[in-house]
Amino acid sequence: MAAYQDLLDKVDAFSAHAVEGQGPYLRCARGCDQCCRQPRTVFAVELAHLRAWIADHPEAVIGLPVADEGPRCPMLKADGACAVYPARPIICRTHGPAARVDEALSYCALNFEGLSASAIEGLIPASSVLNLGLLNTLLVLLNQQHLAAHPGPARADIGEALEP
Ligand code: SF4
Ligand code: SF4
To answer: What separation in Å is there between the alpha carbon of 122 and the centre of ligand 2?
Structure first.
């Protein structure tokens, strides 16, 4: 779990760097929740981290999940904020700014309004683009370490963290 926290810290540091480099083209903000209005699965190591955080902060998830139409992450509050923000999984910390998956750029459709991927490439610093493929590989390896000590499914619905 310490290694996962270390990875979270590194991802947060890089994400701050990405926002610094791409900030003029981003509209990510508290309450902008389109990226949370979908089912969310997490790696087992992330589920364990979330469970531990919720055990320490039970007040944070009172009233969840919110009844609503359509798919939504069960951690999404009625005001559009994330109830588990300090413990949110890695995908939630990287989604939004432009990141690289293989050769292609990946970013939220609400950001970079009206710009093509090739135009974005020319506007933002290359050093602000996260290598998402490499990050996913590191996360898979950490998850395998976690599963060796805590056997179970490799991935689970994030809502399982709300179950007793
Ligand atoms: S990733 Fe997209 S939907 Fe999510 S906060 Fe940023 S702009 Fe909003
Ligand atoms: S964990 Fe939080 S940030 Fe991630 S999808 Fe759910 S509500 Fe959104």
So the answer is: 30
Q: Which residues of the chain, if any, have pLDDT below 70?
A: none
For ligand 2, the distance from its centroid to the CA atom of residue 132, given in whole angstroms, is 18
State which H helix or E strand residue 36 sits in.
none
* Residues within 6 Å of ligand 1 by CB: 27-28, 32, 34-35, 95-96, 108, 110-111
Give residue-wise pLDDT tens across range 62-96: 999 998 778 999 999 999 999 999 999 999 999 99
Distance (Å, whole) CA 144 – CA 142: 5
Span from the CA of 92 to the centroid of ligand 2 (angstroms)? 6
Q: What is the DSSP string of 65-127?
A: SPP-SS---TTB-TTS-BTTGGG--HHHHHSSS-EEETTEEE--TTSSTT--HHHHHHHS-GG
> Tokens 């610094």 appear where?
20
Residue 58 DSSP class: G
**Phi-psi category of 80—alpha, beta or left, where left has phi over 0 and alpha has psi -120 to 50?**
left
